[in-house]
Amino acid sequence: MRETILYLKSILKENDTVVIGVSGGPDSMCLLSFLDEKIIGVKLNIIVAHVNHNVRIESASEEEFVKEFATSKKYIFESLKLPKIEGNFEAEARKLRYRFFEKLVDKYNAKYLFTAHHGDDLVETIIMRLIRGSSFKGYHGIDLITKVKNYYLVRPLLYMNKKEILAYLDSNKISYCLDKTNDLNFNTRNRIRHFVLPSLQKENGNVHLKFLEFSQKITAISDFMDNYVNRILAKIYLNNRLNLLAFKELDPLIQKMALEIILQRIYNNDLYLITNSNCKEILKLINSCKPNGKVKLPNNVNFIKEYNILYLAKDKHKIMHNPVEFTDLVNYNGFVIKKVAASSSKSNYVTRLLTSEIKLPLYVRTRQDGDFMLVKNMFGKKKIKDIFINEKIALDKRDELPIVVDSNNTIIWIPGVKKSKFDKEKNEKYDIILKCEKEGEIYE
Q: Does residue 353 lie in a domain region?
């Protein structure tokens, strides 16, 4: 506990804005308690973010518990109820959870996002990855702090184990919720938690701190090697194309690390989806005598070999071309265009319109021969083809980008690329705001 408090005091300043993921369980309630001004000595602007996973009977009552606690402390409370998820629940729920957290970070201009992963979680994660295989960097498990875009993701409870957390809560009479599914042995993590971890803790009660030290060493070595390998990749990996003749001249260890860096760039926070066997498959393809081949990876990613080049490609979804009438939300070729009540964004992913200047309804379609647009702050019309060339839109993307037109087929907006003369500034008169997001990504 002492290490966690000292760490929090070392990074937090007066009036910092922080988002904290709070499930209502013991871990997150402990972390929320530590962020109290009386404990860390500084006053924070705290946003309590709760995700209702909508899979257990208790989910609704847990959300209400967190809301009441946050309200009693005068913290801002935000919640998200997940839809029914098909397929890999854990992976999809994690993606939706962090997307929600990032939106709150942007909304409140927060400096930190806190999650309540603790020392036992770290031990379990490292053991799981040792069992299933991982990249070298993946064996570090969970970072104490990570720089993400314009904020820091922090997990200060890595200094504590579950036993310490429960003892703190009980001694301070802090209420919390319990997820009974954690007592079951239906998955690998729970079996490690109930059978492997207790044995390690018998050998060393602070085994989580040893794993944290191991994690930080792996990270330091990995960062050093990454810098070295990145300098090599800058010469042989350009525009997502790997020069295999140059790659094969590298030491096998450097080859493997180069491949891991490429995968890290592709998967970012989803790197946990990649196993050691995936890396072996790619290396096998590279060293194969066959001039052509393909390795399929998670999230529809493919590595394709064509003679002495290895490049990245994604499975194509079926591209829509026909116009679709816009109501309040349209998903078009992986782009979600929706009507929103407000937005502070000035980017090309948001447009403000005065409907009396255009003819409703609006439609979403792809480009057509002869398309042009009256671009905002420019005289005359400009061909869509020329706009795509000037904005360096990849050739294979130009036929799937959505274009918003009105009922006269006048181009109103190219989401993420250009605004038309119909776009209004925030201080002008407008009565509709449209926003575009690409599936799985957030634009502000």
A: yes
